Amino acid sequence: MTGVSLTFAPLLGWPLIVAGGALAVVLVALALWRGLPGWALRGAALAVLLAALSGPALQREQTAPLSDIVLLLDDRSASQTLSDRAGQTDAAIAALGRQIAALPNTELRRITVPDGADNGGTRIGAALAEALAAEPRARVAGALVVSDGQVHDADLTPDLPAPLQLLLTGHAADWDRRLLIETAPAFGIIGEETAIRLRIEDMGAVPSSAGRTADLSIAIDGGAPRTYQVTVGKELELPLTLEHGGQNVVQFSLAPLTGELTARNNDAVVQINGVRDRLRVLLVSGQPHAGERTWRNLLKSDAGVDLVHFTILRPPEKQDGTPVSELSLIAFPTQELFIDKIDEFDLIIFDRYGERGILPASYFSNIRRYVEDGGAVLVAAGPEYATVESLWQTDLAPVLPARPTGRVLSEPFVPRPTELGLRHPVTAGLPGAPAPEGQDDAAGQHWGRWLRQIELASPSGEVVMNGARGAPLLVLSRAGKGRVALLASDQAWLWDRGYDGGGPQLELLRRIAHWEMKEPELEEEALYAELEPGSLALTVVRRTMAETAAPAIVTRPDGTTAELPLTETAPGRFTARWVAPESGLYRLTEGDLERVVALGPASPREYEQTIASAEPLAPAIAASTGGVTRLEEGIPTIRPVRAGRPSAGRGWVGITPRAATATVDLRVTPLLPAWAWALIAALLSVAAWMVEGRGRKTA
User: Fold this and answer.
1) What DSSP letter does each residue of 216-260 carry, written as one string?
2) Angle separating helix axes 39-54 and 14-33, nearest 10 degrees
3) Which of 196, 481, 609, 628 is 20 to 30 A from 549, alpha carbon to alpha carbon?
4) What's the pLDDT score for residue 687?
5) Side-chain-facing half-sphere of 271: CA atoms under 13 Å
6) Measured between alpha carbons, how far is residue 140 from residues 5, 164, 345, 635 in Å?
C-alpha cells in the first residue's frame, strides 16, 4: 500500500516565515492603494518566495499490514488440577490454538501461569500485564484466559485495548468443604490452656447429603487421633493444653465426603512452641560444701527458675545444748514441700544429701511416687552416698539407677563420655569433650579434672560418662513415667571455677535437667525434620542409640510414599535431605516413630477457594467488553468483531482485528527545485514590472 502526502521542511523558522508573509501582505496592500496595475503579480512573486522558504515536499509512504496478536493465558496453578479441570484446559488450549492458527493474519502468544511464589496464588493479572507490555498495543486483538477464575492479583489486570475472554473450567455442580484455621498461637505455656479458633465451611452447590455436621479428628505430635462431631459453618474454639516443651504439632483432619472437589483443604497443621512459664526447682542440700553456692548461683541466675532451697545447717549429732528453735531462721514447711505440694515441682535436686532422720521415711516414699508418676530427680552424690546415710538406704532406692559400693575414689580424674554417651543427646557434642577411655584423642581436647568420685555398681540405667578408674560417673534412667539422673561426684563446681581448664558445667546440667523434664530435643529416640526457610526442602533427622537406622518413609499429601535412606552424620544422628514436590502435609515414619510436617504454608491460597468463579476477573472483563464462557458447555468458536460491538455469545467469543500496519519504505521529494522557485518568482516580478511600465505609457 502506497500513500502520498505533502510535508514541509522550512529553511527558516516558522515565526520568520509568518513575519515575512505579514510583510508581503502589507506591501501588496500598499501597491493596491497606490493603484499599481502589477500588484497581483508582485503578490504572487512574494507568495512564491515564501513557499520556497517553507520547503514543501512530496512524501511517498509504502506500508505493509501487520498480523493481529491474540494472548492465550494457560492457568496451570494447583487449583487447576482439581476434578477434570486439567483435561478441560488441555482440550480448550488445543482447540483454541487450531482456531487462531486458521484465522488470516493472526498470531498466538501462549502464556503459562504456574503457582505464584511464596504462596502467592494464581498471578494471572501480573502475567497478563507482562505479556501486554511485551507486545505493541495496536496489534493486540484479544486475550483468552483458560482458568477456574480464582485469581489472586485481579487488581493488577491491565487496561486492555481488546476484549478479555474468560473460558471457565470446572462445573456448576462442584462443591467442596474446607477446614479454616482462623487464629492459632505461636507459643503456649506448658500445662496452661490455650485456644485455637477454627471453622468448617461449605462452598459451591452443596448437596443435602453432605449434612450440617462433620467429623473432626485431632492428633497431637502424630499420636492417636480423637474424633469429634462439629457443626459446619460455626466458629469453633478448641481448648488445648500443651504437655511438653518445644514444638507441639497439632493436626486437624476432616473426614472426606463423596463428591468433594478435594480433600487437600480438609487437613491443617498448627505448630505451637511449648514454653515453661516458670521452672520450679526444689534444691535439697545436705552437708555444706564448696559446691553448694555454685548450685544456688546457677539456679538463681535463670530468671525463669523458681528455686526453693532446703538446706541442713546443723546435723542432729551435733550436741551443744542450743535449742533447735533458737537455731532455725524460719520454720521450714517440710510437710508442705514433700507431701502436699511436691507435684508442683518440675525437678528435685539432692545435693550431697545424707539421710540423718531429718526427713521422715514416708517423705521418701512420696518422692518415689512423685518420680513414678512423671517427676524428675537429680542426685549429685557426695561421700555420704557411700555410707549408711545414703539415699540408697531410703525408700527412694527402687528408682535410683545405681547402688554405691561403699568406696570413695579420692583421686584426680578427667570425666569422659562413654561410647554410649557419644550417642546420647545429654552428653553428645559437649564442647571440648575428650575421647572415651582407651581411645586416642586426636584433637588433644580434655576437660578439667575432678578430685573425688563415689564408686557405683550394678547401674540399671544408661552410663553416659565415666570417671576415675573407668567407673560410672553419670547414670540416666527411667522409673515409671519419671526420670532420674545420678551424678556420682560433688566436684562439678570445679568446672565452674575454671580449675584445670574447667568444663561445660552449665551446659551439662542444663541438658540433664531438660532431659529429665522430657524436652523433645533431648530424647534418645526421636524423628523430626529440619526445614529450610523459603523452600520445600527438609532434612529428616533420626536420633537413636542404636548403631544403625532403617530408612525413613515419607507419606505425601496424595497418599503416595517415598523411602529415604538415612546416613550417619554424627554418633547417634542419621540424616537425609529431601525436596518435596509440593506444599502440604507430610508424614515421616521410621519404625514406631512418627512425625507430621507442614511444608509451605499451612493453608495454601490455591485451596482456600476451590469453586470456579468469574467474580475476581469480572471488573476487567466488563471494562474490555469481554465475556465469560463455561467450558463444560463446549469449547467456543472464535469470531472477529468490530470494536465496541458485543464480543461474546452462546458458543462463541470474539476478538477485534486491529488492521495495524508497518512502514516499509519512505521517500521525500522536494515539490520544486530551488532554481525553479527563483525563476518563477523572477518571471512574476518581470511581468509585474512590464504591466506597470505599459500602464505608465498609456497614461
Assistant:
1) EEEEETT---EEEEEETTSEEEEEEE--SSEEEEEEEEEPP-TT-
2) 180
3) 481
4) 80
5) 13
6) 28, 11, 75, 22
